[in-house]
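hiii so um. not sure if this is the right channel but i have a protein structure encoded as tokens and i wanna go backwards to a sequence. like what aa goes where. can anyone help
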């Protein structure tokens, strides 16, 4: 188990982030266009975790002026249980709290009980909500 660092995303991280997302979110389509849109509209916060100079974690944050959101929290399978996920979420929280947001929201896919437990360990609570979405194609 080697040390890791968390820093802001840089363009050179793109291939590593896309590979990480393909591993962690195979059911979702994630592409370089998503990264490009994030960087064009609201470049920060976007964090990566590096271990041995390889991308092993990611988290994207967003703020709408009232609420903050955390998206795409991912940790490579081989790098889990080292505190990377916890640290990247806590770092993202600090960044989002500094914007003045009143709360931080996040979502996870149904059936991912281990992720719900992980977020609950960070003091997130499950809220009785129905999340709706509409894709523009």
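sure thing!! here u go:
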């Amino acid at each position: 188990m080697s040390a890791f660092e968390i820093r802001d995303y840089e363009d050179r991280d793109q291939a590593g982030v896309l590979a990480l997302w393909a591993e962690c979110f195979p059911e979702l389509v994630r592409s370089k266009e998503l990264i490009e849109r994030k960087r064009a509209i609201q470049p920060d916060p976007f964090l990566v975790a590096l271990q041995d100079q390889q991308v092993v974690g990611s988290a994207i944050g967003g703020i709408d002026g009232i609420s903050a959101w955390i998206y795409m929290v991912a940790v490579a399978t081989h790098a889990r249980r080292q505190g990377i996920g916890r640290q990247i979420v806590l770092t993202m929280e600090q960044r989002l709290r500094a914007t003045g947001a009143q709360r931080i929201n996040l979502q996870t896919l149904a059936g991912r009980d281990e992720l719900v437990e992980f977020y609950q360990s960070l003091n997130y609570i499950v809220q009785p909500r129905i999340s709706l979405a509409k894709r523009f194609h």
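oh and The longest helix spans residues 84-97.
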